[in-house]
Design brief:
Blueprint: H1 15-22, E1 27-32, H2 46-62, E2 65-66, H3 89-105, E3 110-115, H4 122-135, E4 141-145, H5 147-150, H6 152-158, H7 168-177, H8 194-197, H9 220-226, H10 240-261, H11 267-271
Parallel strand pairs: 1-2, 1-3, 3-4
Helix pairs in contact: 2-7, 2-10, 3-4, 7-10
Bound molecules: zinc ion.
């Protein structure tokens, strides 16, 4: 009997439900976030919450299953603020690899990570999936989906400030999906002066299509001193309406990707 989709979340199903799903599809979405400070207005789980919301909305639209969310990411630079829980980069790589090995063992062949934590989780996600493909499981297709790369258009049409950690867009998205978790009276106006603190090549706007970037990692102690509230860029212009536009654009992008992926057989099979 085919799986009835009473839930898109693996952790809410029985093994027989998953077995039934695998007879029809080999795609799974894995949301990955973080538990880290998000300024005075945003909850510590913001990156995980938005990854979960994206995964759930996409999964419902495409009838695909989601793995349980990973609530921890690579957040060492935020450890100066209470509540932040970080995995070291190598731990995150190990977790991503073990999750993938388990899923692949049962027949999942298209594993899509939706990352809510932007640049800080990407080195681990790319490294883990690239190495798994080369050395262990070339037959498994991986995708790493990140707002920084699929939302440039909508971000630049929507936001009114530079977007960085705990900025206007990510606060807006959380506000749209989880309104009770945003402290609207604690939105921020400060903009960290990245050029002074780091260099004119700092990645000052995560959605810029023109600013040239040289990465200069910082420590949690440095962050505590250059970002008094934890927020790197202003969130004062955040709104649920902006969040809705930003979120739905990303959902559309990922849904289109999955529809395309259903018939994709890989670069080798394609030519044969
Ligand atoms: Zn964030």
């Amino acid at each position: 009997m085919p799986y009835d989709f009473r839930s898109v979340w693996l952790q809410e199903l029985t093994w027989e439900d998953v077995d039934a799903y695998l007879k029809e599809s080999n795609i799974i979405i894995c949301p990955v976030g973080s538990t880290e400070q998000h300024g005075p207005a945003g909850p510590l789980g913001l990156d995980s919450l938005v990854a979960i919301a994206l995964a759930e909305d996409v999964a419902k639209a495409t009838k695909v299953l989601c793995a349980p969310p990973l609530w921890f990411g690579d957040s060492s630079h935020h450890l100066g603020f209470p509540g932040t829980i970080s995995l070291r980069t190598e731990t995150l790589i190990a977790v991503i690899k073990d999750m993938s090995r388990s899923l692949a063992k049962h027949g999942f062949r298209k594993i899509l990570f939706i990352n809510g934590h932007k640049g800080a989780n990407l080195p681990a996600l790319i490294s883990a999936t690239k190495n798994l493909r080369e050395y262990e499981m070339p037959e498994v297709f991986f995708a790493v989906i990140d707002p920084m790369k699929i939302a440039k258009k909508v971000a630049n049409e929507t936001k009114e400030a530079l977007e960085h950690h705990s900025g206007e867009l990510e606060i807006s998205e959380c506000w749209y999906k989880f309104p009770h978790l945003i402290k609207a009276d604690r939105l921020t106006t400060e903009q960290v002066s990245f050029a002074e603190t780091f260099s004119p090549w700092f990645h000052e706007d995560l959605f810029s299509t023109t600013h040239e970037v040289i990465d200069t990692p910082w420590t949690s102690a440095e962050e505590r001193s250059f970002a008094a509230t934890g927020s790197f860029s202003p969130s004062i212009k955040a709104s649920p309406e902006k969040g809705k536009k930003y979120h739905n654009y990303m959902v559309d992008q990922i849904v289109a990707f999955i529809e395309w992926l259903r018939s994709y057989r890989g670069p080798i099979a394609k030519g044969s």
